[in-house]
Amino acid sequence: MFKKNNEETVVVKGAIPKTLKLQFKVTCVQKELQMSEALENLIRQWIQADAPINELAVDLFNEDYEDVKAYIPKSLKRQLKLLCAQKRITIRSILYVLIKQWVEVGQASPRLFDSKSRRNITY
């Protein structure tokens, strides 16, 4: 744990398909973002949107997995864990859907998130 802007940060992680993790890394590089920064923004936006869970019927069998992790504020992880518990979903599932949607939209629209202006990521 370390502090970012005077707030303690913690790790959030989940196993996602290796191919998706690679696409996520590439998208982050193209948008000049750190993976932690992108995931933090995606999680914040998901929470602000009332934590929709409409695309969780995901078939992930026969996939090779790799952990994706981000350092996010402790308070944000607490919110994420609480919402996941209330909705009876896993953090891994949410990370998978958020990353998948962001990568897919990012491939169609090159400037979803301007790293210099720090506007919200659209997904």
Task: Tell me what you see in this structure.
The longest helix has 18 residues, at 91-108. The protein is globular. The chain has one domain: Arc Repressor Mutant (Orthogonal Bundle). It has 4 helices and 3 strands, in the order E-E-H-H-E-H-H. Strand 1 and strand 2 form a beta hairpin. Helix 1 packs across helix 4, helix 2 (35-48) packs across helix 3 (74-87) and helix 2 (35-48) packs across helix 4. Helix content is 48%, strand content 19%.
Any low-confidence stretches, pLDDT <50, length ≥5?
Answer: 110-123
Percentage of residues assigned to helices: 40-55%
Write the H/E string, N to C. Answer: EEHHEHH
Task: Tell me the name of the CATH class.
Answer: Mainly Alpha
Largest beta sheet: what is the strand line-up? 1-2-3
Number of helices: 4
Average pLDDT over all residues: 82
Name the shape in a single word. globular
- Rg over CA atoms, rounded to whole Å, is 14 Å
CATH architecture: Orthogonal Bundle
- Name the structural class: alpha+beta
Number of strands: 3
Describe the biggest sheet?
3 strands, antiparallel
Strand content: 15-25%
Kindly report how far apart the N and C termini lie: 28 Å
Q: At the third CATH level, what is the topology name?
A: Arc Repressor Mutant
* Count of the domains: 1
Short structural description:
It contains 4 helices and 3 strands.
Blueprint of the fold:
Elements: E1 2-4, E2 7-17, H1 18-30, H2 35-48, E3 65-73, H3 74-87, H4 91-108
Antiparallel strand pairs: 1-2, 2-3
Structural features:
123 residues; alpha+beta; Arc Repressor Mutant; three-stranded antiparallel β-sheet; 4 helices; disordered C terminus
